[in-house]
């Protein structure tokens, strides 16, 4: 499929109801996730009915006008129905100026940024009640399917339930379709979902693009935010974290592995999270004495970037970390499906553990990842059911489909590639 073809993004459906409102729309996410492409698409679509001004703050002249001549910027902006500003995080005191424009103009604004630190803390504090945030990550697996195999995408998307909690395993597919889905899913495990990577033809090209994303974009941003002279310790921290996905983070180990002091390591870790390199998942607990495990688990926003950090692009069949990749993918999938929910994991001091806990509508749903072709249920899952009596539990498998009852809990076995 040619790389020039636009791949529709799921976020477009979520954005639609908010485009008519006055509030500023902020699209946040890692560099190279497709924010500029999406904004250009919005410019094209909205421009059919509105007067649109598109600017990027990577353009020094536009940035200078906004920073030093806000009244002149306002005179230009008032000529348009909507102003779209890409790379908004470059603006100093951007939130304060955006608030002024919002309060004094009828013009609607859409902004984008690649650092949630800048957009959330610097801009967000001025824009409370005036701005809606929408995250844009690299291609989800559904979007990846759309780019790679429209037939399979149409099959997977035809199932009415977009939510694994409500999915009926009887609506699953045959063995051959599952094999085709898995081939694509395992490619996604290795190279991830950055659009430029997904649309590259050869493995060599994919790896070159990932190298460019790390060196030119992510490390540049992180170095700038931390005022680093060198990224040596940052690279060591990222590499060690990449080798530990799905495991509970031990801060002392991270500090030793990276060569950073404890406080420096925590700061670096926060920046990795706020620049969308990694996510930290905190524990779920009710009884603090028996379930309190304070340390988070770490996952990477993009598995291609994770594998690049380890220089490991082996095919799925040759990998010893396939279970960890599947778990990391499941985290990203659940995060996309339930953007308003803070996912957690469950672990007791006696080491019973469930990969994820989804708290939804005042109910809890345990989710385990068992990348296998057979029914697999661990003792920890039984323990969680016995303790919390969830209405539904999920086992995300390689290609096994099924359903069974444990006590009053409906346990569904659903292939991971269906969502």
* Topology, number of strands: 13
Number of domains: 2
Low-confidence stretches: none
**Arithmetic mean pLDDT:** 91
Largest beta-sheet details: 8 strands, mixed
Structural class determined from secondary elements: alpha/beta
Rg estimate, integer Å = 22 Å
What is the CA-CA span between the terminal residues? 22 Å
- Portion in strands: 15-25%
Give, in spatial order, the strands making up the sheet with the most strands: 7-6-8-9-10-11-13-12
Number of helices: 18
Characterize the quaternary organization of these chains.
Answer: single chain
Helix content: 40-55%
Describe the structure.
This protein is of the alpha/beta class and 419 residues long. The chain folds into 2 domains: 11-135, Rossmann fold, CATH 3.40.50.300; 141-418, no CATH class. Helices cover 44% and strands 18% of the residues. It has helices at 11-15, 35-46, 60-68, 70-77, 94-104, 116-123, 141-148, 150-158, 175-191, 195-198, 203-226, 232-242, 251-258, 262-274, 288-291, 303-309, 322-337, 379-388; strands at residues 24-28, 52-56, 82-86, 108-113, 131-135, 278-283, 297-300, 344-347, 353-360, 363-370, 392-397, 402-406, 409-415. It has an 8-stranded mixed sheet with strand order 7-6-8-9-10-11-13-12, sandwiched between helices. The chain has a 5-stranded parallel sheet with strand order 2-3-4-1-5, with helices on both faces. A hairpin with a 2-residue loop joins strand 9 (353-360) and strand 10 (363-370). The mean pLDDT is 91.
């Amino acid at each position: 499929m040619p790389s020039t073809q636009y791949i529709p993004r799921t976020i477009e459906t979520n954005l639609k109801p908010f485009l008519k409102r006055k509030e500023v729309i902020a699209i946040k996410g890692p560099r190279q996730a497709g924010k500029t492409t999406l904004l250009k698409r919005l410019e094209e679509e909205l421009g059919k009915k509105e007067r649109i001004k598109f600017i990027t703050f990577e353009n020094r002249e536009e940035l200078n006008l906004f920073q030093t001549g806000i009244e002149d910027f306002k005179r230009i902006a008032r000529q348009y129905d909507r102003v779209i500003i890409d790379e908004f995080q470059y603006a100093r005191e951007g939130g304060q100026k955006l608030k002024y424009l919002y309060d004094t103009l009828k013009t609607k604004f859409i902004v984008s940024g690649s650092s949630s630190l800048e957009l959330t803390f610097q801009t967000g504090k001025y824009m409370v009640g005036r701005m809606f945030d929408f995250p844009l990550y690299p291609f989800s697996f559904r979007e990846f399917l759309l780019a790679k195999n429209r037939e399979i995408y149409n099959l997977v998307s035809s199932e009415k339930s977009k939510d694994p909690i409500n999915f009926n395993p009887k609506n699953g597919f045959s063995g051959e379709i599952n094999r085709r889905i898995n081939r694509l899913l395992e490619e996604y495990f290795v190279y991830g979902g950055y659009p430029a990577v997904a649309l590259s033809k050869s493995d060599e090209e994919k790896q070159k693009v990932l190298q460019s994303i790390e060196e030119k974009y992510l490390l540049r941003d992180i170095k700038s935010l931390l005022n680093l002279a060198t990224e040596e310790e940052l690279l060591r921290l990222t590499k060690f974290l990449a080798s530990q996905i799905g495991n509970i983070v031990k801060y002392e180990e991270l500090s030793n592995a990276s060569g950073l002091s404890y406080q420096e390591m925590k700061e670096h870790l926060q920046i990795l999270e706020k620049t969308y390199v990694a996510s930290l998942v905190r524990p779920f607990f009710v009884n603090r004495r028996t379930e309190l495990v304070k340390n988070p688990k770490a996952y990477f926003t993009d598995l291609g970037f994770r594998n690049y950090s380890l220089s490991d692009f082996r095919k799925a069949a040759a990998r010893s970390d396939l279970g960890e990749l599947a778990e990391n993918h499941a985290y990203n999938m659940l995060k996309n499906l339930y953007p308003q929910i803070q996912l957690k994991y469950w672990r007791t001091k006696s080491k019973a553990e469930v990969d994820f806990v989804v708290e939804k509508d005042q109910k809890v749903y345990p989710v385990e990842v068992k990348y296998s072709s057979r029914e697999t249920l661990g003792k920890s899952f039984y323990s969680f059911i016995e303790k919390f009596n969830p209405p539904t539990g999920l086992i995300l498998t390689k290609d096994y489909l099924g359903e069974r009852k444990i006590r009053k809990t409906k346990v569904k076995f659903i292939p991971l590639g269906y969502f």
